[in-house]
Amino acid sequence: MNEEIYYFRIGKQNSDHGDDEGRGYFHAYTVDKKVDDTITLSDGDVYILPAGYHGPSIAAPEYPMYFLNVLAGPAADRTMAFCDDPSHHWIRDAWKTQKQDPRVPMTSANGRVKNS
Predict the structure, then answer these.
(1) Calpha distance 115→34 (Å, rounded)
(2) Is 107 exposed, middle or buried (0-12, 13-18, 19+ CB in 10 A)?
(3) Which tens digit of pLDDT belongs to each residue from 53-103?
(4) What is the Cα–Cα distance from 47 to 57, expressed in whole angstroms?
(5) What CA–CA distance (Å, rounded) separates 105 from 62?
(6) Domains of the chain listed by start with CATH number
(7) How many CA atoms lie within 13 A of 109 on its CB side?
(8) DSSP symbol at 11
């Protein structure tokens, strides 16, 4: 099990930095609903998720949002291990037959993946 920390930046269209007026939303939850938070975000906010899942993260139009995600856990080996919400696992199976969107470049350890 990993704990996660999210640091949010919410900018303004065509701005290099955050903006005090920017707002966004972040949803975090556990299957048993011990955690079921939908919070309003401002630029520079931090959210700590001790367990469970997250998503969606959304921002108002004209206010791009990005976040830095940090994972921590008790495993002896450092890993980026994660698990999907079981009710959404079907999505990964659907990727097997989906063609790559040419607008979204993909990379691997061997370099850029060519569109097929």
Answers:
(1) 43
(2) exposed
(3) 888 899 988 888 989 988 877 777 767 666 788 888 888 888 888 887 878
(4) 12
(5) 24
(6) 3-99 (2.60.120.10)
(7) 0
(8) B
